[in-house]
């Protein structure tokens, strides 16, 4: 009998629950012209479900159609947030905004601006192409000051730091706290002053701590979540430091040979993975190992 152990913290975070509720309420209101700017969350099943309910997805404000005379439209801003100029473009096209930016994402947005206004070089730890980082960059783009985005301590050389530099840090909400702490410590050895804000969200802390503990107690870990989901990918990286780890988007990707000679299987899931997907993976593992 294979034991399946679920991480003590896994699956939907409050920011994802909030944006899904907002999307559902907008669609249930039966208003016309409801659009979502970008992928709502990084989970393909949930995006398909919301699309099936009637949400229209656009990648850029230029795709918003002209509203018929006398009619209104709404654009839902996803949990990752957007830059202020994108909101201005939405309003300029005559649409209202329903702002689903996670309240925890507004923290690095505001600190980024404060760091640059206070005269520090802004260093953001994150992935530049990620929508959360693109949104944050929009909060400082009208300010004078040096801004860099790096993924972690391995990229410090690209900053060309000077001994006289005063550096201000923020992190993408879903990056590992150990990596952030190392980056800050390494930079502090090379510059005059460092100011650092803890902008990693509690849900990320909890899920990363839980998978670290779980991965040390099982023979393999299965992490469920979208391949574009940063926080899911971090969970995979952490688990792989300790044991064999597989990343699946849903139960159809599970392979029976993964579970040969295995006694204990750990399961975790990214912050945008619905409970039903976690249950389906658990049940499919039981079927594959012949426990049902
Ligand atoms: S992972 Fe954290 S920052 Fe991102 S949506 Fe969830 S609660 Fe908000």
List the helices and strands and how they pair.
Elements (H helix, E strand, L loop, with lengths): L2 E4 L7 H15 L5 E4 L6 H9 L3 E3 L15 E4 L6 H9 L3 E4 L6 H12 L3 E5 L5 H8 L8 E4 L15 E6 L5 H12 L4 E4 L5 H14 L4 E5 L5 H11 L3 E5 L15 E6 L5 H14 L4
Parallel strand pairs: 1-12, 2-3, 2-4, 4-5, 6-7, 6-8, 8-9, 10-11, 10-12
The chain binds iron/sulfur cluster.
CATH topology of the largest domain: Cobalt-precorrin-4 Transmethylase, domain 1
Measured on Cα atoms, how large is the radius of gyration?
21 Å
| Separation of the first and last Cα atoms | 10 Å
Number of helices: 9
Written overview of the protein:
The chain is of the alpha/beta class. It is built from nine helices and twelve strands. The protein has helices spanning 14-28, 44-52, 84-92, 106-117, 131-138, 177-188, 202-215, 230-240, 275-288, and strands at residues 3-6, 34-37, 56-58, 74-77, 96-99, 121-125, 147-150, 166-171, 193-196, 220-224, 244-248, 264-269. Helix 3 links the parallel strand 4 and strand 5 (96-99). Helix 7 (202-215) runs parallel beside helix 8. The radius of gyration is 21 Å and the shape is flat. The mean pLDDT is 95.
Give me some keywords for this one:
292 residues; alpha/beta; Cobalt-precorrin-4 Transmethylase, domain 1; 9 helices; binds iron/sulfur cluster
In brief:
The chain is an alpha/beta fold.
């Amino acid at each position: 009998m294979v034991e399946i152990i679920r991480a003590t913290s896994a699956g939907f975070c409050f920011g994802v629950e909030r944006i899904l509720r907002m999307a559902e309420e907008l669609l249930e209101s039966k208003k016309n012209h409801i659009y979502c700017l970008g992928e709502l969350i990084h989970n393909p099943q949930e995006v398909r479900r919301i699309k099936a309910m009637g949400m229209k997805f656009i990648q850029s404000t230029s795709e918003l159609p002209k509203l018929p005379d006398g009619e209104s439209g709404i654009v839902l801003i996803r949990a990752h947030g957007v830059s202020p100029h994108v909101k201005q473009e939405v309003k300029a096209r005559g649409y209202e905004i329903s702002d689903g930016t996670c309240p925890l994402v507004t923290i690095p947005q505001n600190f980024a601006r404060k760091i640059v206004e206070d005269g520090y070089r802004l260093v953001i730890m994150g992935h530049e192409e990620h929508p959360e980082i693109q949104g944050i960059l929009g909060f400082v783009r009208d300010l004078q000051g040096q801004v860099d985005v790096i993924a972690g301590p391995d990229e410090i050389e690209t900053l060309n730091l000077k001994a006289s530099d005063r550096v201000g840090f923020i992190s993408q909400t879903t990056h590992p706290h150990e990596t952030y702490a190392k980056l800050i410590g390494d930079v502090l050895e090379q510059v005059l002053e460092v100011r650092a804000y803890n902008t990693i969200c509690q849900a990320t802390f909890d899920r990363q701590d839980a998978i670290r503990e779980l991965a040390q107690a099982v023979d393999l870990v299965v992490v469920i979540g979208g391949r574009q989901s940063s926080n899911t990918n971090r969970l995979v990286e952490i688990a792989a430091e300790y044991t064999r780890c597989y990343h699946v988007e849903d139960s159809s990707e599970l392979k029976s040979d993964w579970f040969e000679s295995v006694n204990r299987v750990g399961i975790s899931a990214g912050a945008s993975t619905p409970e039903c997907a976690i249950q389906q993976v658990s049940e499919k593992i039981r079927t594959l190992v012949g426990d049902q």
